[in-house]
Amino acid sequence: MMTAKSIGAASANGYADYLESRTVAPEQGDYYLGRDGAPAEAPGRWLTDPTALARIGVTPGTMEPDELRALMEGRRPGASEPVWLRAAGPDGSRAGGIDVTFSAPKSVSIAWALSDQRAALEAAHHAAVEAAVDYLRETVELTVRYDAAAGAAVPAPAAHVHAAAFTHTTARGVGEEAPDPQLHSHVVLTSVEREDGSVAAVRSRPVLRAAREVGAYYRGHLAGELRQLGYAIEPAGDDGRYFRISGITEPMERAFSARTEEVKRAAREFRAKHGREPERGELRDLAVRTRERKALPRDRSELDRVWERRGLEAGVDREVVAAVRSAASAVVVPDRERWGDRVENGVTARRAAFRAAELRTVALEQAAGHGLEPRRALVEVDELRRDGRVLDLADGRMTTARVREAEREIEERVGVMASDAARAIAAPTIEAGIRSVEARLGAPLSVEQREAVATITGPGRAAVLIGPAGTGKGVVIDAAAHAERATRREVWGVAVAGRTAQRLGESTPALEGRVRTIDGFLAAVEHGRIRLDANATVYVDEAGMSDTNRLHPLVAAVDRHGASLVAIGDPRQLPSIGGGGMFEHIVERVPTAQLTEVRRTSDIAAREAWRELREGDPARAMAHYRAAGRLHFGETRVEAIEAAARRYDELARELGHERVALMTDASNVEIDTLNLRIQALRRERRELSPEAVEHPDGHLLHGADRVVWTRSTPVADEPRVENGEHGTVASRADEPLTVRLDNSGREVAVSTEHLDSLRLAYAGHVVREQGATVDRAVVVTGGWQTSRESAYVEASRARDGVDWFVARDELEAGCDADRIDQLAARMRASRAQVPSLAQPLSDHTRALGDPDRAFHVERLQPPASVLPAPEPAVEIAP
Predict the structure, then answer these.
(1) Is-contact 539 568, C-beta < 8 A?
(2) Which tens digits make up the pLDDT trace of 498-537?
(3) pLDDT tens digit string along 611-663?
(4) What are phi and psi of 635, to 5 degrees?
(5) DSSP 8-state secondary structure symbol assigned to residue 231
């Protein structure tokens, strides 16, 4: 992989010392261990054309430390008086450069540590690093040039980049533990030479943006070098983005990642106990306590023996590493077809349309594991376009023929279904359905709710219900489903997530026991457990979160069997995680009912704030929360997290955990931090049992802990537990762990093999909370992930108010009023999904043959004569 970070001018000298390992003195084993056991310099080497080096006063050949320091400071090396090579910035300083780190996959580091081919493996790594730096220079606009026509500076590639590489072979040790093997190189980009011969600083942002692509190029080149050495390579990771040496397994890799895992666990425990990040010394001390004290290796041979002992415990030694090498004469035949399929899936995994850089990146990532050299993979990308598998859109983006065809099929099928007047539900039956719901609620439906019921009950086989959060969509669905069932029609409710489907069943009694995930529903239809026909209607809740890969087979199955489809959602809430956007697209093509009156809260000011967030005017909304004392600033993200955890803890003690939601729009690491912190607060008050079961991630699950399932999990002789379902650990945690489910009260025994499907559930990602209704909400937000959609969903979950927690250091300097404006700017950024159909194809693609014009769905449903006839309408007395 590749990472990149900027080096400040003030820290240039210290960073150079760090790279040369001269500041490591008290801590043996950190990065580079000399043959005599003492910390030694990591020898550096130039990756720059010798003539370009000579032009800036550097003698080609061995790199002298003072030369690197001078370049990092922007000076010409060797000059008696400072001769500045590049101009200073607006504040008078010169950036120190950018540290780009290339790290070999763990299996390669293991092969290096336990083989006699160290020099060859290091040479392969060096060749891959050099190739990746060349690719960076060729493809990334590292500088600017003056454009006379534009009258301004424009981004431009560099003629040369001044780069120095330092290769290290170990990860940092923790405390008194021997370091893990980790073959990696730090490449310092100090400056560039422009086409006109001038020297300038490296533009950091393009380098950071290109990290994934250039890292993929490095891995692809390294995989090719390893094949030349006789190693077989296979894809690694769930999406095949990485590779490993065949024969070195994941358990073996984990055995040589002790430092990483120990640091993570120690930091997690410290944050849970103290509510802040540990200092370096505190983290080291904590990590040391988790293991038996051991003496550090005194020299390289002793470190090798440590690695050999660790390898034996994991089942890998020098003989195993030697055995995994394939015959040197073996010919690797690139699997171009599988590579192409993986590329098509990868580029559309998150968005229906993508940029050329994303296509290159995915192509390079998939190349390593499928036998393609990086340069060849880029040529094959052009073949995908010429073959019509990748299509150019008019706005400069691209999509795949598969996605375009799926979108076209959804569009055509839904349009045909909407015009097919096959559902005949009499008005008195619809009225009876409405009255049954009114009797349950003890209140009348509004005019717009009544009109919505009439719209989504037909006569066409497709309809849409749109409503902002809290407008009572569930009530409308319930009344419509009651009316459908009165005519002896089958009704089903589906959603992407299991918890969303369950909420649909809870809020819609007419669908009780008849809700599924989309995947589960389709599987049941395919295997005959659910019978779809002309007498069935499928309600799709939170349809905006349905990606095209799920919506496409669902629409096809419903249409194929002559059934009806009602899609429910709000285009302004969270979009699908995968490529999507078709929900909003089909709104214009089918009968659509819209709800507008918010009923979840009676607070008029809160309703207005929700509307402002939904409509993209967050500045006014956040000013409201600030004035109401509901917007809280911490100096750092850690402080904001701690304050949010304590506020949630306070509210949960008052109202109960089920009635309070704690959300973040950030990473799983942050969710874990919040969960463990709240668990620690509860443990301090002895609300949890002293008995506990260890989770595979290393933390403990106590009796009375709140947990959630992160994937659908089978239960012996009982219905499975759905992804997203919440529960409480039985009062005494034991094996097998018993959890009482929130929605049904059912007690479920969780076997040891399924413990990893559980997670502490005090905090969750905002995606999991869409569709939830609680009394109070607590939100940590304000980072780069914040968006218009996430802010709206976070605000609108709670009837009685939301508390926002934001870190000042994630926003620009200034007073808090300025930071509110900056926060609002992030909340204006939309991450809505857009289908490729929102753009026409480019003229270039049309010239190859217009896929849009040629597209047509073959009607798959049987002739009308063999379709089951609808049951006659049954009148129900009021």
Answers:
(1) yes
(2) 889 988 998 899 998 899 999 999 999 999 999 999 999 9
(3) 999 999 999 999 999 999 999 999 999 999 999 999 999 999 999 999 999 99
(4) -65, -40
(5) B
As a whole number of angstroms, the distance between CA 309 and CA 675 comes to 36
Q: Give the Cα separation of 173 and 296 in Å (integer).
A: 9
Alpha carbons 87 and 648: distance in angstroms, whole number? 51
Kindly report the pTM of this predicted structure. Answer: 0.86
Beta strand pairing call for 763-765 and 660-664: parallel
DSSP string, 513-556: T-EEEHHHHHHHHHTTSS---TTEEEEETTGGG--HHHHHHHHH
What is residue 635's DSSP assignment? Answer: S
For 876: left if phi > 0, alpha if psi spans -120 to 50, otherwise beta; the answer is beta
Euclidean distance between the first and the last CA atom of the chain, given in angstroms as a whole number: 68
List of residues 6+ apart from 282 with CB closer than 8 A: 270
- The residue behind tokens 């874990």 is 672
Q: Which residues of 728-747 are buried (b: 16+ CB within 10 A; e: fewer)?
A: bbbeebeeebbbebbeeeee
Phi/psi of residue 497, each to 5°? -95, 145
Output Rg (C-alpha) for the chain, integer angstroms.
30
Q: Are 122 and 112 in contact (CB under 8 A)?
A: yes
Domains of the chain: 2-323 (no CATH), 336-387 (no CATH), 404-594 (3.40.50.300), 604-714+737-810 (3.40.50)
Distance of alpha carbon 74 from alpha carbon 12, whole angstroms:
10
Maximum average pLDDT range among 78-82, 158-162, 424-428: 158-162
Other Cβ atoms within 10 Å of 645 Cβ, number: 28
